[in-house]
């Protein structure tokens, strides 16, 4: 048995024949052999009132016996239930229902019939359901042969190999030359140029180009912090932040500079460090022309122009543009001296 839509016979089968064959196998009824009549009336349910002549199988989709025969444009597909019904349509008229109409009907008949037993996910493809199920089971059958990485989908493994091992980055931004190994990453990157922010918060006017950013933002509304450090009890709303925090305990610094022995816990720290080697200062103030290699430094600098002082003392009305200034101020209340490393 093979899928009718992929069988040698079915590559040339009229879509109306495919559809009616599937319907017969599902409900076990006899069929109208006159495709001209079905075409003129537009009836796709004429057989529904007929008595079933063998047990029905509503799960049948696009699989029937690969034994259809064509002779002089006549189609003869025996039923796999051996019920005696021959799906013999005689001459299939060229002026019958349009092939495009039949394609849509077949698609409606087959679409989204595979259901996940864990959630409400549905798909027209069994293969897609298998991939989806791995999100529940945690199964990652695709293993990298160069490191310990594994993935639930082969496309993710391919992207990993290109990004981490071969360094191949075939997807390039036509605006700025940015390159990546992942097509979806390029799609997200392009939103920087277009300004598209498709992910919107349903509780405020926040919107973002990244779904992950929206998930993190929503945690501000709920106050939920489900991720907890087993070493010190640190809690966070973001799994990625917990991973970074854990490195403080393990001492792991996976991001390494190619020009010196510098390494860091976070990639953003390495990116800032690399600008010391290149001398690049891509972030510029539109008010005074101040330039910096660090986006956060520009954010702090802009407060000189706006007068914003978001960091406030809990014991008096002091406020500052920098958190370090509030820390030094708080030391005065405690009667201690805050030591600052000059290196």
From TrEMBL:
One of its GO terms (molecular function) is DNA-binding transcription factor activity, RNA polymerase II-specific. Its main location: nucleus. The keyword Signal does not apply. GO terms for cellular component: nucleus. It is found in: Nucleus. Residues 114-141, 142-170, 171-198, 199-226, 227-254, 255-282, 283-310, 311-338 form the C2H2-type domain. The keyword 4Fe-4S does not apply. InterPro entries: Znf-C2H2_CTCF, Znf_C2H2_sf, Znf_C2H2_type. Keywords: Metal-binding, Nucleus, Repeat, Zinc, Zinc-finger. Pfam families: zf-C2H2, zf-C2H2_16, zf-H2C2_5. PROSITE patterns: ZINC_FINGER_C2H2_2. One of its GO terms (biological process) is regulation of transcription by RNA polymerase II. PANTHER family: CHROMATIN-LINKED ADAPTOR FOR MSL PROTEINS, ISOFORM B, ZINC FINGER PROTEIN. This is Zinc finger protein 525-like isoform X1. It comes from Branchiostoma floridae (Florida lancelet). The gene is LOC118408227.
